[in-house]
Design a protein that fits this description.
This protein is mainly α. The protein is built from four helices and no strands. The protein has one domain. Helix 1 packs across helix 2, helix 2 packs across helix 4 and helix 3 packs across helix 4. The longest helix is centred in the N-terminal third of the chain and has 91 residues.
Length: 179
């Protein structure tokens, strides 16, 4: 090959390499743009998913709060009934075991106060009130929780069996001092 032929071949090779380099840079630029677009779309999708998730959580929270709010009145009535029953039990202890009667009466008063609080406060206020009661009077809170647990167990038994309140066994009245 002559020098001119070699030079032409080198020039063609250099031009081919230049064209290949240009094509590679163009493809790299396009790939970079596609990557930026994909990242932007992924970020948009992530924001949409986050907004949708937050919306769903908010809706579920609102629904749960609405359900809890709707059951407050019924629960307050039941608590008031339990408070009256506890009060009657405390009255029967008076004159025989005054210290126990006093504790039972305090428990009844707290249950009655809780029923009133339940009627007048929202769910968040109720939770802070229960926490306050537990911190101020831990023994009383434990006793009231135990009494409420028994009451809920009785109600649960009625609900599960499909029985009415009249179908529950009647608890005998305890009359102290009589034989």
């Amino acid at each position: 090959m002559s020098d001119k032929g070699a030079t032409d071949a080198i020039a063609k090779g250099a031009a081919s390499l230049q064209a290949a380099g240009d094509a590679a840079r163009q493809i790299a630029g396009q790939a970079g743009q596609a990557g930026i677009q994909a990242a932007g779309q992924a970020q948009e999708l992530a924001h949409e998913a986050q907004a949708t998730g937050a919306s769903l959580v908010g809706a579920l929270g609102e629904r749960a709060e609405a359900v809890a709010e709707s059951g407050k009145s019924s629960l307050a009535d039941q608590l008031e009934d339990v408070a009256k029953a506890v009060h009657r039990s405390g009255a029967q202890l008076e004159g025989h075991q005054d210290w126990a009667a006093h504790l039972v009466e305090r428990g009844a008063a707290e249950l009655s106060t809780l029923a009133t609080t339940l009627r007048t406060n929202d769910l968040h206020g109720l939770m802070s009130g229960l926490q306050d009661l537990a911190q101020r009077q831990p023994a009383l809170f434990a006793g009231a929780s135990l009494a409420a647990g028994f009451a809920l167990a009785r109600v649960g038994r009625v609900v599960v069996s499909g029985a009415s309140k009249d179908d529950l066994p009647k608890l005998p009245e305890v009359k102290l001092g009589q034989q």
